[in-house]
Design goal:
three-stranded antiparallel sheet; single chain; Arc Repressor Mutant, subunit A; about 15% strand; about 100 residues; alpha+beta; 3 strands
C-alpha cells in the first residue's frame, strides 16, 4: 500500500455514515436481512438494505459505495438487477498494517 491509496481510504472512512457501513458489513448477519433471492451473505449485502438502514437517498449511498469500492474497501457483485457489497478484508488489513 502506498501513501496515495492510504489517503484515499482515510478520506472514505472520515465520513460517519461510510464508517458505519464498514462496521455494519463486518457482521452482516446481525445488521441486515438476507436478500429474498440469495438467502446468504457470501456476496455481501444488497445495496437496497444498506440504503434503507442509512436513511439516505439512493443516489447518495450509490456514490458512497462507488467511492469505497474505487479505493478498495469494498467488493461489489452483481446478480441480475441487484448489486451486493462486502468488505475487502485484504485491503483493510493492508491499510491497518500501513498505519502501524
Amino acid at each position: 500500500m502506498d501513501l496515495k491509496l492510504a489517503t484515499q481510504i482515510g478520506k472514505c472512512l472520515s465520513n460517519k455514515v461510510r464508517f458505519q457501513i464498514m462496521e455494519w458489513l463486518k457482521d452482516p448477519e446481525n445488521n441486515f436481512p438476507p436478500h429474498e433471492t440469495l438467502k446468504h451473505f457470501n456476496d455481501g449485502v444488497c445495496v437496497t438494505y444498506i440504503q434503507e438502514k442509512t436513511g439516505l437517498s439512493q443516489s447518495t449511498i450509490s456514490t458512497y459505495l462507488t467511492n469505497m469500492e474505487k479505493c478498495g474497501l469494498l467488493i461489489s457483485t452483481r446478480h441480475g438487477k441487484w448489486s451486493y457489497f462486502k468488505r475487502n478484508e485484504k485491503v483493510i488489513h493492508n491499510f491497518v498494517m500501513f498505519l502501524k
